[in-house]
Amino acid sequence: MCRSWLTSFVIGMLIAAAACSGSAPKEPAGGPAGDKAAAPTLETRWLRGLWANDIRDQLATVGLTCKGPLQEKGTNVWMCESGTPLVSYQMRFYGSSPGKIEYINAIVTQSGPAKDALALRVFAVLAGLHFDGADQAKARQWLQATMATGGNTVIGPAKYKLAGDAGRRTFDVKASGSEW
Q1: E strands, 10-149, in order
Q2: How many CB atoms neighbour CB 97 within 10 A?
Q3: pLDDT in tens, 21-70
Q4: Strand partners, 152
Q5: How far apart are CA 65 and CA 45, in angstroms?
Q6: Of 32, 102, 121, 169, which has the fewest beta carbons less than 10 angstroms from its beta carbon?
Q7: What are the residues whose beta carbons fall under 8 Å from the beta carbon of 10, sequence distance 6 or more?
């Protein structure tokens, strides 16, 4: 606030001095386009526009209940889970605050005849989360196409990773600039 007031004051003084001396103030190095180049870059350490409650609400639609946040090494962590004797769903998501979610990790463990549809049910919810720059349709298509083989991809500001076999699958969604 003070810096912008001071900047406005200094610019006003330069214009007034130039008007009195008959010369125009010099443009900053780089000219008018230099202002555009100095625009702040998009924050990539977290998934902008995604809130902890958004994740909790979406996971509730597939039967997971969430607790948290709890503190783990100075970071907020929310834990969500559900299960039956044959299938276990565990999900954690991490962030410095409820509006700065950096990393989401989901694990689906199955015993007996494993079915990808059970893991896909929860993973598709995570791939469909809305945040700035997200492409939910593309993320879900990638997930469906790589369910059997696993892999990594970057879609918009997020990195996606699918790993494991039908007995134990993991799915991660991470902000591209996150240190997780």
Answers
A1: 65-72, 75-83, 87-95, 101-110
A2: 12
A3: 444 444 444 444 444 455 445 678 999 999 999 999 999 999 999 999 99
A4: 161
A5: 26
A6: 32
A7: none
